[in-house]
């Protein structure tokens, strides 16, 4: 098992390099020059040239890539001109907030999605199945940002059960309780779509497995129906559900961008949107590479979980 | 095409989705012709008018623009962009996927590495990076959304293509003189298109959400032009004071996407052949029983006694009479063979005993299964479950498919013991080990920790046999247990079964299509054709002097080793479909002795208790055969 | 008598655990060097159990797999499938699974027409005539032509597969388990049809099957495959009545036969050798009652006159 994890980590290196290449290549496409964007109305030819020299933009693209890569490997992601602080500091600070939000949503969607899918499949065409199917349809059709806005309107403004926005109260203590209060609405709004997708896939994976011969064997042995569903069928269905959970983690991370905007959550998604609108390229590059790298590592965890579950995968 | 539409129409939810979508698309198409206010004319004097105001049915927004007009124009834009993104992503993704899947090898490897690389991004990061590079704008948002979805399509379509490219009809096409380009176009593509359409119809809604999302962030459509997403984005700052400006576009997105998803599900259900045949319904814990008519009494001293058992499959409006009234019994220590071709109902008969016929579509519609005097048809589930594996156990055909792939064989044996006996784990493991030794598995101790895929076919089937013996059952029903095995392995398994049944005085019902196997293992044999027993008797008697013409001709057409090169005695024609059985003898259309009387009315299974035949003109008179 | 098919030292090795760059992790020798000759008008039976390499061998003969080593000659000329429109006219293949060998989205007419159009360049009228002729030969009704494959039973689908192979007008047919997916009553129909076609059209067959009785019923000569090697080859009646290789005898004795008592011909529980890690010497020796010291050291070669066996201690 240890050697398998190591192997997966090693095989992630080319993927991480590929990510940096893709990000760099896309950014290199940007028309116009960043210096003009940074300087705005102060863009005299001399100033532009100076900035270009400072940023190393006068060098060829390949060389620039390796300088950027080398610096990143040493922990230097560059400096954000719009915030005037190191990119990495900003990204790390913001990523913590995103992680709290997306992590909570991911756990919610995995637990409730799988459970709903199993119940739905076990009671196919029954009342529970129809109710869940309808809820799932609603969940995957509603834009998460609209759902978030409506939740603010109802639960925060009308009912006053939860704060309207932000991660912490403006005044007052920053304890777990206040975090949970602030987290509840955005986490649910973010989890709804992913829960729907996971529930749908779990249902069809369960239906697929329940038709297999080994389920008939379990029944022929006299295994009670609850054991057939939860021990035999779900275990086998997890083989196809876990990769979906891996993909959904990416979707939750993506959806967090909208939710962070709606709920004024100080996360990395909001930072990226602001950075794009101010054309703060180093911040965009650094943020994207950092989050993508975290996602790659998370997917290794998913693969390892999969190999623990399925002995047919060669480790 | 008509069939597809009628299938779609049968699904009421999909139909509702279709109606809504047609309406929305029509409205979007005629928007420029309608007498609407200009969507982009600001009138700050009339800002935030509530809905149902004079001259503004849905009210106005923060710049006093007519919301109804903006909604209509925005819908038009959102639909166009969403569909365009879906089409672009589907076409490019499918092209990449088909090329990678068909050519395989290094081409596939390189392409898929690239796809994996793109999928290593949470998709919005890629979209944001693309928009950052190209600059905000609706067209750029469209490109970004299409681009990030290409890998999903490519991976999906590649998987399907790999499956098709390895089908034998592709090999046949190569030998028919086709080149690669032609094969892709005429053999692969027609089989992939339904999948592409399904993937597209289930993702169009998602694409609309995504482009609306980018617009919501201010990265899509730029003012004054608005799609639904940017309307929502602009309204957000006035969410608390004037919620109607947010609700209007938000609800519109919800309605459109929901209609598309309903329609997409309908399209998928109509195009997916597996769903069409109802294969994705889950079999219930035991077979449905709808018994009409009386419950036949048990007869004789059989431990397991089937009386006039009838099992049907109800698929849509067709009824398949898989088992059409089967009576047979097996005594302790006896081995009864049931022989027949595929579709004769022999397996369904066997599975009906313990209610293991997949239901839906299977239904037991008549007769009785007496086990030690108790009728199992219609018995409560808990009664059946208690008997399954404890008193009556099964051995199935393909041991790779019938053992759970993710549990060690030892654990599966332990479970078989512990569902019926409350014994400590250690004791159960000891017993399981003993079982593996009973079925002569070498190195039984280490095999306890093996997974099924780590064993050979013969070893797996031994595990299957060990599992059936776990609770010392009275009856074992073996459903073609050696059909999937090689002949040398089959010989080992058969001799093992024979030894075990003599040692343990088991009653065995052995289902097979092979006369050689029946001859070597079974005391008595019942021959099935089209869901009924046509002949029954002691194995030797039936094989030496078959009475039913079907039995006689079936024996004659099996080539036997040692007879040299020769012409075989084939039976003309095909077995009848059990949803359309002819009146009278089902074999009559293929029988050279058939007379008009054979094709009329019910022909009974007659004879002595030992030997019976369902024929008006048997090959041998039964009295003479005894 | 001319030679229709000649294989010389034909072998196939599959790489296992391929990587994008660099050497694969291991090799499986699916087919060890095999040399065989099939005379024109002859039916050569190939018999063996699952995993013995018989399908790999067959697929190499029709160019669907590239041999690792060795040569194939078809009617005196080396196999050349560079131009599919020429190659298809020389050798054809009938598949094991009749349903999956027909494209579910094409009508039977489109399927049978393809070789006529692409291999023989016939126009519409010629094609219709020829299809009528072929369908009469394989006892299929013409009304089937505009239906789709899923409407047919296995036996009918296999006749369609045979019709497609005939349409190419190749003189040599590779029959890869053509009846093992069929019920016995239908199996006999198809076997008789194949025999009949051969007689009328003067075809050469390579008939592959795991069923000894079926192979015996159709073949002139038989080759027995074990673990990728031919272990015995000779006239069908000799091979089955007087097997020389212990494996052939084991096969013959394992087949369940009416009127023979049930015994396990092998006393021990045995398994096939591991293809990734093949044993030294004779691959069968672990299961062989006659195995001696030499069997563990050397690989036996095919020897004999007319009836050949690869064994140091052949059965007398």
Automatic annotation (TrEMBL), chain A:
Keywords (alphabetical) are:
Cell membrane, Membrane, Transmembrane, Transmembrane helix, Transport
> Its GO biological process terms?
transmembrane transport
Residue ranges of every copy of the ABC transmembrane type-1 domain listed in the record: 95-301
Transmembrane intervals: 12-30, 95-119, 131-159, 179-201, 236-261, 281-302
Chief location bin:
membrane
The terms describing its cellular component in GO are: plasma membrane
What protein is this chain from? Answer: Dipeptide transport system permease protein DppB
Q: Which organism is it from?
A: Salipiger mucosus DSM 16094
Automatic annotation (TrEMBL), chain B:
Q: Which residues form the ABC transporter domain?
A: 304-555
In which domain of life is the source organism classified?
Answer: Bacteria
Q: Name one GO cellular component term.
A: plasma membrane
Q: Which parts of the sequence belong to the ABC transmembrane type-1 domain?
A: 75-264
The listed locations are: Cell inner membrane; Cell membrane
BP GO terms, sorted: peptide transport; transmembrane transport
Molecular-function GO term, any one: ATP hydrolysis activity
Q: Where are the transmembrane segments?
A: 12-34, 77-103, 188-209, 246-264
Q: Which PROSITE patterns does the annotation name?
A: ABC_TM1, ABC_TRANSPORTER_1, ABC_TRANSPORTER_2
Q: Has the keyword Cell inner membrane been applied to this entry?
A: yes
Topology of this chain in the membrane: Peripheral membrane protein; Multi-pass membrane protein
Q: Which UniProt keywords apply?
A: ATP-binding, Cell inner membrane, Cell membrane, Membrane, Nucleotide-binding, Translocase, Transmembrane, Transmembrane helix, Transport
Q: Name one Pfam family in it.
A: OppC_N
The record's comment on protein family reads:
Belongs to the binding-protein-dependent transport system permease family. Belongs to the ABC transporter superfamily.
- Name used for this protein in its record: Putative oligopeptide ABC transporter, ATP-binding protein
Q: Which organism is it from?
A: Salipiger mucosus DSM 16094
Lineage, please? Bacteria, Pseudomonadati, Pseudomonadota, Alphaproteobacteria, Rhodobacterales
TrEMBL record, chain C:
Q: GO molecular function: any one? A: ATP hydrolysis activity
Where mainly located? membrane
What InterPro entries does the record tag this protein with? AAA+_ATPase, ABC_transp_ATP-bind, ABC_transporter-like_ATP-bd, ABC_transporter-like_CS, Oligopep_ABC_C, P-loop_NTPase
Q: Which residues form the ABC transporter domain?
A: 5-252
Which SUPFAM superfamilies does the record associate with it?
Answer: P-loop containing nucleoside triphosphate hydrolases
Q: Name one GO cellular component term.
A: plasma membrane
What are the record keywords, sorted?
ATP-binding, Nucleotide-binding, Transport
UniProt-recorded name of the protein:
Dipeptide transport ATP-binding protein DppF
* UniProt organism field: Salipiger mucosus DSM 16094
Q: What is the lineage of its organism?
A: Bacteria, Pseudomonadati, Pseudomonadota, Alphaproteobacteria, Rhodobacterales
């Amino acid at each position: 098992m240890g050697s398998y994890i190591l192997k997966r980590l090693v095989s992630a290196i080319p993927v991480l390099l590929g990510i940096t290449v893709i990000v760099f290549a896309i950014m290199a496409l940007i028309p116009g020059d960043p210096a003009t964007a940074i300087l705005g109305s102060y863009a005299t030819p001399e100033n532009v040239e100076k900035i270009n020299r400072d940023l190393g933009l006068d060098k060829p693209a390949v060389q620039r890539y390796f300088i950027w890569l080398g610096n990143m490997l040493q922990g230097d992601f560059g400096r954000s001109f719009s915030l005037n602080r190191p990119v990495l500091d900003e990204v790390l600070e913001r990523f913590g907030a995103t992680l709290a939000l997306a992590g909570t949503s991911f756990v919610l969607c995995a637990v409730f999605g799988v459970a709903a899918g199993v119940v739905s499949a076990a009671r196919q065409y029954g009342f529970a199945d129809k109710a869940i199917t309808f809820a799932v349809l609603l969940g995957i059709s509603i834009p998460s940002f609209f759902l978030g806005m409506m939740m603010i309107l109802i639960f925060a403004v009308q009912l006053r059960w939860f704060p309207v926005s932000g991660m912490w109260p403006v005044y007052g203590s920053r304890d777990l309780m206040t975090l949970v209060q602030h987290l509840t609405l955005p986490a649910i709004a973010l989890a709804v779509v992913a829960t729907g997708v996971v529930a749908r896939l779990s249902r069809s994976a369960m239906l697929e497995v329940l038709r297999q011969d080994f389920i008939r064997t379990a029944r022929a042995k006299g295994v009670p129906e609850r054991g057939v569903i939860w021990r035999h069928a779900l275990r086998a269905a997890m083989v196809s559900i876990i990769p979906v959970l891996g993909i959904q983690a990416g979707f939750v991370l993506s959806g967090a961008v909208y939710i962070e905007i709606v709920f004024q959550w100080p996360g990395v998604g909001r930072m990226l949107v602001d950075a794009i609108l101010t054309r703060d390229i180093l911040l965009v590059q650094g943020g994207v590479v950092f989050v993508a790298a975290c996602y790659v590592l998370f997917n290794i965890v998913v693969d390892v979980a999969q190999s623990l579950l399925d002995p047919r995968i060669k480790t | 095409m008509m069939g597809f539409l009628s299938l779609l129409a049968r699904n009421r939810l999909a139909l509702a989705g279709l109606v809504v979508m047609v309406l929305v698309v029509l409205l979007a198409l005629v928007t420029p012709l309608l007498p609407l206010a200009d969507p982009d004319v600001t009138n700050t004097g009339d800002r935030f008018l509530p809905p149902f105001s004079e001259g503004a049915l849905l009210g106005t927004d923060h710049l006093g623009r007519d919301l109804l007009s903006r909604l209509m124009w925005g819908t038009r834009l959102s639909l166009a962009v969403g569909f365009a993104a879906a089409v672009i992503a589907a076409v490019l993704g499918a092209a990449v996927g088909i090329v990678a899947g068909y050519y395989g090898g290094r081409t596939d490897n390189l392409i898929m590495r690239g796809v994996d690389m793109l999928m290593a991004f949470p998709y919005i990061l890629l979209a944001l990076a693309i928009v950052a590079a190209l600059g905000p704008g609706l067209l750029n948002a469209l490109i970004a959304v299409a681009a990030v979805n290409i890998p999903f399509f490519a991976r999906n379509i590649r998987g399907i293509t790999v499956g098709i490219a390895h089908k034998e009809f592709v090999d046949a096409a190569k030998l028919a003189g086709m080149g690669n380009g032609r094969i892709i176009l005429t053999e692969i593509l027609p089989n992939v298109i339904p999948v592409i359409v399904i993937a597209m119809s289930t993702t169009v809604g998602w694409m609309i959400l995504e482009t609306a999302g980018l617009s919501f962030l201010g990265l899509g459509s730029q003012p004054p032009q608005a799609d639904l997403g940017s309307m929502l984005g602009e309204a957000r700052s006035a969410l608390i004071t004037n919620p109607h400006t947010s609700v209007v576009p938000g609800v519109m997105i919800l309605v459109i996407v929901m209609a598309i998803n309903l329609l997409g599900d309908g399209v998928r259900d109509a195009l997916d052949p597996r769903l069409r045949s109802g294969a994705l319904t889950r079999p219930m814990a035991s077979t449905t029983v709808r018994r009409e008519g009386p419950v036949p009494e048990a007869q004789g001293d059989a431990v397991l006694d089937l009386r006039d058992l009838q099992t049907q499959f109800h698929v849509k409006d067709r009824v398949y009479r898989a088992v059409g009234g089967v009576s047979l019994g097996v005594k302790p220590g006896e081995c009864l063979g049931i022989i027949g071709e595929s579709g004769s109902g022999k397996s369904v008969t066997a599975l009906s005993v313990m209610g293991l016929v997949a239901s839906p579509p299977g239904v037991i519609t008549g007769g009785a299964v007496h086990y030690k005097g108790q009728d199992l048809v219609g018995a409560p589930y808990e009664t059946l479950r208690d008997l399954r594996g404890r008193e009556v156990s099964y051995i199935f055909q393909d041991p790779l498919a019938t053992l759970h792939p993710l549990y060690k064989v030892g654990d599966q044996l332990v479970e078989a013991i512990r569902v019926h006996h409350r014994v400590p784990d250690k004791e159960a493991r000891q017993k399981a080990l003993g079982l593996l030794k009973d079925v002569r598995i070498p190195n039984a101790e280490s095999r306890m920790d093996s997974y099924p895929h780590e064993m050979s076919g013969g070893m797996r089937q031994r595990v299957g046999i060990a599992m059936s013996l776990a609770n010392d059952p009275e009856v074992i029903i073996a459903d073609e247990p050696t059909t999937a095995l090689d002949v040398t392995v089959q010989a080992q398994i058969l001799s093992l079964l024979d030894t075990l049944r003599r040692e343990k005085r088991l009653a065995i019902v052995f289902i097979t299509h092979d006369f050689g196997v029946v001859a070597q293992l079974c005391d008595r044999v019942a021959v099935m054709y089209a869901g009924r027993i046509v002949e029954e008797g002691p194995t030797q008697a039936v094989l030496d002097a078959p009475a039913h013409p079907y039995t006689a001709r079936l024996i004659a057409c099996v080539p036997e080793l040692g007879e040299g090169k020769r012409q075989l005695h084939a039976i003309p024609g095909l077995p009848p479909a059990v949803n359309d059985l002819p009146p009278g003898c089902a074999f009559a259309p293929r029988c050279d002795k058939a007379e008009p009387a054979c094709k009329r009315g019910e022909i009974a299974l007659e004879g002595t208790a030992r030997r019976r035949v369902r024929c008006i003109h048997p090959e041998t008179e039964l009295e003479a055969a005894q | 008598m001319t030679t229709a098919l000649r294989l010389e030292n034909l072998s196939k090795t599959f790489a296992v655990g391929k990587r994008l760059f660099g050497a694969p992790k291991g090799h499986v020798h699916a087919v060890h060097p095999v040399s065989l000759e099939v005379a024109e008008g002859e039916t050569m039976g190939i018999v063996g159990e699952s995993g013995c390499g018989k399908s790999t061998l067959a697929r190499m003969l029709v160019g669907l797999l590239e041999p690792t080593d060795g040569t194939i000659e078809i009617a005196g000329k080396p196999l050349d499938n560079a131009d599919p429109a020429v190659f298809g006219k020389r050798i054809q293949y009938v598949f094991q699974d009749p349903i999956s060998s027909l494209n579910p989205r094409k009508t039977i007419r489109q399927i049978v027409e393809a070789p006529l159009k692409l291999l023989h360049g016939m126009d519409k009228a010629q094609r219709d005539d020829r299809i009528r002729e072929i369908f009469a030969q394989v006892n299929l009704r013409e009304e089937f032509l505009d239906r789709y494959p899923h409407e047919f039973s296995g036996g009918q689908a296999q006749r369609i597969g045979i019709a497609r192979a005939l349409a190419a007008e190749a003189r040599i047919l590779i029959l890869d388990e053509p009846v093992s997916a069929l019920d016995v009553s239908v199996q006999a129909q198809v076997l008789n049809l194949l025999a009949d076609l051969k007689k009328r059209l003067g075809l050469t067959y390579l008939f592959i099957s795991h069923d000894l009785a079926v192979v015996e019923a159709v073949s002139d000569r038989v080759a027995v495959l074990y673990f990728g090697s031919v272990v015995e080859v000779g006239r069908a009646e000799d091979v089955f009545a007087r097997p020389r290789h212990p494996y052939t005898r084991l096969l013959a004795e394992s087949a369940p036969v009416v009127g023979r008592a049930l015994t396990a011909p092998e006393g021990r529980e045995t398994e096939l050798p591991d293809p990734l890690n093949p044993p030294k010497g004779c691959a069968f020796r672990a299961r062989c009652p006659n195995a001696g010291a030499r069997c563990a050291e050397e690989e036996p070669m095919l020897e004999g006159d007319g009836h050949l066996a690869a064994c140091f201690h052949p059965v007398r």
